[in-house]
Specification:
Length: about 400
C-alpha cells in the first residue's frame, strides 16, 4: 500500500479542538501521513514515519479541504446580462431561475455534464474537496432525474430541488405542481438523491407546500435541507428546525424566534446548521446575514458558495471566507471553521472537514503560513496543492 507524507507544514488546521489550539485545533511542527485515501497519522515532524512519497508543504498552512454544502451546478445558459442589469439598479426577485430552466431543458446530457465537471474542477482548484450539488433547473420528472443522475457522477451529496420555483406551465396551479413534486418527480429523483430541498420563500413555495414536500421526501429516505429566509422574513427556518433538517440555508432575515430555534437545536445530537451564503448577497447587492448574532447565540454556522448562474456565480470558498470576515464580522478562525467543519456538519458528515487519523485525506496546502491569509489576501490564488482522497490534484 502506497503511503504519502506531508511535511514542512507551517500550521496545520485540524478542526479537532485542543486546549492550546482553539476550535481550529492548530498544530505546528507536525507531519501528516496518508494511506489508502485516509489520514493515518499526525504527529511531531521529527517522528514522521518513512513513506513512499513526500509532499513538502514549504512552510505553508495545511487545512481540511473546503466542504461546500450548497451549490447549483446542473444548468445551461448564461445570465451575465441579468447580473449587469442588477448592478445597474434592477432588483433581484428570483424570477430569473425560469430563464435557466428553459436553457437546461434544451441542453444535452453532455452539455450539462461538461458544466458540472468544469465547475467541480474549478472549485477543487480553490480547495473544495466535498461539494453538494442540487437539481432544480429541470422541473420536469425527466429533467430533474437526469440532473441528479449527472450530479451523482461527481458527488455523493446530491439534492433534489424540484421545489425551486413553480415552472411556467404550472403558473397559477402551485398545488398541482407540488403534487407532481411529491409524487412521480420524487420517485424518479430518489435513486440519485441523498437530500431533498425546498425554496421556501414568498414567490416560491409557502410553509404548507414546503412541509408537504419535506415530509414525503423524508419518508422516502432523504435528508432535509431548506432555502429559508433569504429575501425576507418567513417560516422556513423554524420549519426546518421543527422537521430536523440538517441545514437551513441563507438565513438573511431572521426573527428572535428563528435564532432561538436554531440555538436550541445546536445543543441536540443532530443540530440544524445555519448555512450562510454571502456570495448571494454580494452578487445581488443585498444586506448580509447577521453572522455575529447567530454565533453569539451558539448556533452552528456553515459557509457555502450557493454557486449558481443567477444570484451567485462563484465556486470560490476562499472568496466566501473573505466576505464572511470583512462583511459579516466573523473572525478568520470562525470563517475557516464554518467553511470546512461547518460544511461537514451541514451535510452530517464526520469523515470530512476535519483532519485526524481515520478521516479522508482531503486537504489543501496554502502558499501562505497560516489560515489567516485566506481572508487577509482576498482574490489571491493561495492554494498550491489539493489532496482529494489522498490524491494530489494540482501539478506542482
Ligand atoms: Zn441555493
Amino acid at each position: 500500500m502506497s503511503s504519502l507524507l506531508v511535511d514542512d507544514i507551517g500550521e496545520l488546521v485540524t478542526n479537532v479542538p485542543t486546549p492550546g489550539g482553539g476550535p481550529l485545533g492548530l498544530r505546528r511542527d507536525v507531519a501528516l501521513l496518508v494511506e489508502a485515501g485516509r489520514v493515518v497519522w499526525i504527529g511531531p515532524a521529527r517522528y514522521a514515519p518513512a513513506a513512499d512519497r513526500r509532499i513538502d508543504a514549504g512552510g505553508g498552512a495545511v487545512l481540511p479541504g473546503f466542504v461546500d454544502s450548497h451549490a447549483h451546478l446542473v444548468f445551461a445558459g448564461d445570465r451575465a446580462a441579468e447580473f449587469a442589469a442588477r448592478m445597474a439598479g434592477e432588483p433581484y426577485t428570483g424570477g430569473g431561475i425560469r430563464t435557466t430552466v428553459g436553457a437546461t431543458r434544451a441542453a444535452s446530457d453532455d452539455d450539462l455534464r461538461d458544466t458540472v465537471r468544469r465547475l467541480r474542477d474549478e472549485a477543487m482548484r480553490q480547495g473544495t474537496t466535498t461539494m453538494e450539488i442540487k437539481s432544480g433547473y429541470g422541473l420536469t420528472v425527466a429533467d430533474e432525474a437526469r440532473s441528479l443522475r449527472i450530479a451523482a457522477e461527481v458527488t455523493a451529496e446530491t439534492t433534489f430541488l424540484g421545489a425551486h420555483v413553480v415552472p411556467a406551465e404550472y403558473a397559477g396551479r402551485p398545488d398541482d405542481y407540488v403534487g407532481l413534486v411529491c409524487g412521480p418527480m420524487l420517485t424518479a429523483a430518489t435513486p440519485y438523491a441523498r437530500w431533498v430541498d425546498v425554496f421556501c420563500e414568498r414567490g416560491a413555495f409557502d410553509a404548507d407546500h414546503a412541509r408537504a414536500i419535506l415530509t414525503v421526501g423524508q419518508a422516502a429516505g432523504l435528508g432535509l435541507r431548506l432555502h429559508a429566509n433569504q429575501l425576507g422574513p418567513g417560516p422556513g427556518v423554524r420549519l426546518g428546525v421543527e422537521l430536523g433538517a440538517a441545514s437551513v440555508d441563507h438565513c438573511t432575515h431572521l426573527s428572535d424566534a428563528d435564532v432561538d430555534a436554531l440555538a436550541g437545536s445546536a445543543t441536540t445530537d443532530d443540530p440544524t446548521v445555519a448555512t450562510l451564503l454571502p456570495g448571494a448577497e454580494f452578487s445581488t447587492r443585498s444586506p448580509y446575514p447577521d453572522a455575529r448574532r447567530l454565533l453569539d447565540a451558539g448556533v452552528t454556522v456553515a459557509l457555502a458558495t450557493d454557486c449558481n448562474p443567477g444570484s451567485s456565480y462563484t465556486s470560490s470558498m476562499p472568496f466566501c471566507v473573505a466576505l464572511a470576515v470583512r462583511e459579516m464580522r466573523m473572525t478568520p478562525a470562525e470563517a475557516v471553521w464554518a467553511a470546512t467543519a461547518g460544511g461537514a456538519r451541514a451535510l452530517r458528515r464526520t469523515d470530512v472537514g476535519v483532519l485526524r487519523p481515520g478521516t479522508r485525506a482531503d486537504l489543501m496546502i496554502l502558499d501562505a503560513p497560516s489560515h489567516l491569509h485566506l481572508a487577509y489576501r482576498p482574490g489571491v490564488p493561495l492554494i498550491r496543492q489539493v489532496l482529494h482522497n489522498g490524491v494530489p490534484q494540482c501539478r506542482l
